[in-house]
Request: fold
Amino acid sequence: MAKMKKADYLKEAVKHIEISKHNVVPLVDAMGDMAFSARDLARAAKIYNLMLADKNCSVILTLAGSLFSAGLKKVVVDLVRNNMVDAIVSTGAVIVDQDFFEGLGFKHYKGTPHGIDDNDLRALHIDRIYDTFIDEDELRVCDDTTRRIADSLDPRPYSSREFIEEMGKYLSKHGKTKDSVVLAAYEKRVPVFVPAFSDCSAGFGMIAHQWNNPEKHMSLDSAKDFLELTKLKVEARDTGLLMIGGGVPKNFTQDTVVAADILGEEAPMHKYAVQVTVADVRDGALSSSTLKEACSWGKVETTSEQMVFSEATLALPLIAGYAYHKGVWKTRKARRYSDFLNKELAKIG
Reply:
């Protein structure tokens, strides 16, 4: 049998589901008359729709896990473009290795966890995420692109939001597709925060930038990230959280309420909250800690909150699709918090 080549593995691209093409409202409403996770998901969809219907509420989306590589990118693009999300907090992998990567013209491919030797994949420079394959050589191009963006910036500390805005600017000039969250957020002035930014392709690019420019280089300021998101929370006041996965994005966003209190600013607990997770609540891990538990920390109100214990590729298209086809977002105004934060930055020089 002939030895497999890279092209034999990277043949069929993952396709991104489009919520606009599937009206799931009747299905989700019917699930609301069921029990267990079906009813939880239906309630979560209705709470997300409440966030959008509340004229005073700003929606913050948090993302963790291999979401866009799995086909959920277009869902989030549509949320951004239709004013259904006002800020995003994410892991670096989602924003850089998956979204920016595809913005450069690359793709994720259908793979399999069965009947393959990962040593063979390694020899061919193919990375695997469960049943998805990625070309490692293309990821290196993504790494180097972030280095070149870093090289072009003034040598000072940046928040991740500022750097991702530069990535969006780059895609607006050199991108290969319009279906990019980084690009859509740049165009719609939706800030994107990645609190653990070095833990992704951007990290490789940035260490190369600092290695080659030891005296004068740009750097990331995680405290600046936290301050900017806290300023956004104080400005927004009423907020709703749509959290896909857990981890750093979840805690970072919930903690803005406490941070504002420490700074002597008034910021109410997050008014609405939905979380989709597969983490086990019994071990005390952050990713699974319930939204009711978050109330004890002064972070989330318990009136309109819902945990959905489900894998994201199943739950997010239903929750987002329900709100999309209900249509209350059509009269919702863009918050343009990127412009607000840039003005705040200008005040301090």
User: Anything to note?
Assistant: The chain has 16 helices and eleven strands. The CA atoms of residues 49 and 155 lie 43 Å apart. The chain has one domain: 17-330+337-344. The chain has a mean pLDDT of 94.
